[in-house]
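To the structural biology subgroup,

Please find below the input and predicted structure for enoyl-CoA hydratase, which we are adding to the shared reference set this quarter. The sequence is reproduced verbatim from the submission form. If anyone notices a discrepancy with their own records, reply to this email rather than editing the shared folder directly, so we keep one authoritative version.
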Amino acid sequence: MTASVLSALAARRMEIGPFSPAELKVSPRRWQHWHLKRDEQNVAWLLMDKADSSANVLSESVLREFSEIIAALKSDMPSALVIRSAKPGSFCVGADISEFRELHTEPDVINKLVEAHLLAQHLVDLSCPTIAIIHGAALGGGLELALCCDYRLAVKGATFGVPEVLLGLHPGLGGTARLPDLIDPLVAMDMMLTGRTIHDAQASQLGLIDQLLEERHIGKAVTAVLDKQITVDRRNLRARPFRLDWVRRLAAWRMRKQADAKVAPQQYPAPQALIKLWERHGNSPDQVLHREIYSFAHLLNTPSSRNLVRVFFLREQLKALGDPGKGRHKPAPVQHVHVIGAGAMGGDIAGWCALQGLRVSLFDTEPKAIGKALSNLTELCRKKHRSAAQTRDILDRLIPDPDNSGVAVADLVLEAVPEDLQLKRQVYAEIEPRMKPDAILATNTSSIALDKLRSGLADAGRLVGIHFFNPVAQMQLVEVVAHSTARSSALERASTFVGQINRLPAPVSSDPGFLVNRALTPYLVEAIGLLDEGLSAEAIDQVAIDFGMPMGPLELADQVGLDICLGVADMLREQLDSNLPEAPEWLRSKVSKGELGRKTGKGIYRWKHGKVQKKYRRKQAPRGTQERLLLPMLNACMACLREKVIDDADQLDGAMIFATGFPPFRGGPMQYAEQLGFDTIEQQLQQLSEKHGPRFTPDAGWTAPGWTAAPDE
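Predicted structure (tokenized):
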């Protein structure tokens, strides 16, 4: 009851000036995306309310209406202009990125940006005080809009960021000039170069906002601005040294060095473009504003940015799968998860679910394993910057359950015991009679076909695969695995659960290895083969890193665990009747001796305190090594598409990017294959097959694809 009352009062609790909550729902109105009304002090309250959207974005139509409103205000100037969001969740989350796809040439982009810059300048030049009131997120263009105002008042809990670099861009609505001119230029550049978000207290300390308030004090703060009781010193003393060219050059040299250490400039050109813009023109904000337009226009038309924009929408597509009830009957949310097995995966899955607000019970036959899961969750809370009170609440939600009693009350029972078919069937036989009739039975298996696991179940329709990747707290993708008799309602609810815990679901069929392991294993196996031929592990891994992978295949194998890699490779070789070569004896020997990689401190590499120990003096790998590593992965991806392991190329690309770190600037494996050309890939595989053996035999899909390629962006 209390929650429903609070929900009903949410709009009334928000300070919206002269408006009543009912007025915001009136339709039709003069403006489609804005509400405008003056109060008794002649303050114009302008509420941003993007139509048919849960959050505000700066689309062309939103900006066009804003331009008309600013022109109308100029002809009848108010005593002040207040800009805030009518959306309860946030201020504005930036540009409408879908419109980026409609801009095909640099002149197209320049024309749009010139119009947007003129509008921003009209806001800056208004003769009345302008006040941005920010709650929730102010990101990208949303923050840049607020920077055009004279005052920024923020409600506690607000966050701020300029994340354009994640799209291969830098700010394009004046942020490259106004942010360094307002706060410490080094902090401003760091925000733009990393895309990191800062919270309300940081923003206040930096001078990004003028006052941090409770919502109930907003009205009084607006009056205080009118009465000139709030005055702000805009002299940015920290910016003064950087008006000197030699100071900026020195700072830019350091920035460039740090940026190069994180990403290759030929792969991600945006950081270097931003540094160059500030280094050359940072002594004149007007010049930065002017040059920003041309720099942004150039970046938007680079392959890197086009692919990163594509990846943004791949993420949105996968996120939408986590809300399968949209527009129809919505699956009931999962409130209680029961995890069986507190090993490396089960314990971390339980901890992540508790961190995301679910009630979790955790069973294991070894109490020490449950204790370690609680310890790991405490450390995760520290890394996620949770307060002591928040950490206590999160730990309270993770309930040690040595009696396995949570089975009877859980909405979802997730089994994460070792990869042994008989062991898993034994677990199911014990727990299924105790489960709620509508509860989901999920398995985290990475290699066992669900059609084998369902044998013996009284209700096989509720069994689904929910396959997490290690480390759970970092890997965004979760495979939702179907089998021949799985109920669609169970699969939908499983996908909804994945969305609930802030992860991206990828629906796949229960073919051997599902999607990710099937595509990744040939890549890892080929790396081991190259190691067997005498190449150093460091040289092999560097080839993959140069391609854009976050780490090399051999370091990845150590991260995953050599035992798991070997098990999946053996399973694929057996079940797919594939041409994968046998694992070398030295690898089997390592696994039998317990040299499994990171988790044991020794594998292909040595590991110390969780960090890989590499020898950096290495001979470079020979030409052609990249093709030998990557083409088997692409070949397996094509086979998965042809066999309908996953629905389409977009989902496959998204899954591989968010599960394996396939370079986002390349747009995904199939997008990369499209750019290379299927004929070229087929020919290269054929040549490698003739030279190195049948494991490189081209999949039939390269010459007769049974799927529809995504259109060029």
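Summary notes: The chain has three domains: 15-306, 336-412+419-440+477-507, 516-702. The chain has a mean pLDDT of 92.

Regards,
Lab coordination
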